[in-house]
Amino acid sequence: MGAKLRFNLYFLTIYTYLAVYTGALVRHERASLAVPVWPFQDGRFIWPDSVQDYVQYGHRLAAFILVVWILYVTWLVFRDYKHYRVLTYGMVLALILVALQALTGILSVYTGVNLYVALFHSLIITILFALFCYLCMLGARSKKKSFTHSLKRTFSGSFFFYQNML
């Protein structure tokens, strides 16, 4: 796994955590229905006039950025790493999960924060975050493996050094 993909996966995971935090902030500020129509109030953008509106719009913006970033990382994986099935399937699963996450977020607004919809919304983001943590773990392992592999290739002529590396 290259440095560019590893960088994007690490920071995408951190950003996902921050987006989860904005969702928790929506809940704690009781802003779940501050903007009762999706995506904007009354079908058009109205400047927020309360803290709850700012929190709700901030969460929606964070979710939008998350979707765009996942699309970008998926494009990177399919462009450069399509022969790694774990990465391709993982990013396809991430796309499915983020689409379901957006759908349950929209449904939670339309259903007046139905308990089952809200719980499913929380479950999906938990699975998505776990998936990103797993992909980060693979990235960390591939970095270590590629470093060791390059050392073995560089010093393969020196039998003594090669034996001590193992």
UniProtKB/TrEMBL annotation:
InterPro entries: COX15/CtaA_fam, COX15/CtaA_HemeA_synthase. One of its GO terms (cellular component) is membrane. GO terms for molecular function: metal ion binding; oxidoreductase activity. GO terms for biological process: heme A biosynthetic process. Pathway: Porphyrin-containing compound metabolism. Keywords: Cell membrane, Disulfide bond, Heme biosynthesis, Iron, Membrane, Metal-binding, Oxidoreductase, Transmembrane, Transmembrane helix. It is found in: Membrane. It comes from the Bacteria. The chain crosses the membrane at residues 7-26, 57-78, 90-110, 116-137. It is a multi-pass membrane protein. PANTHER family: HEME A SYNTHASE. This is Cytochrome oxidase assembly protein. It comes from Listeria fleischmannii FSL S10-1203.
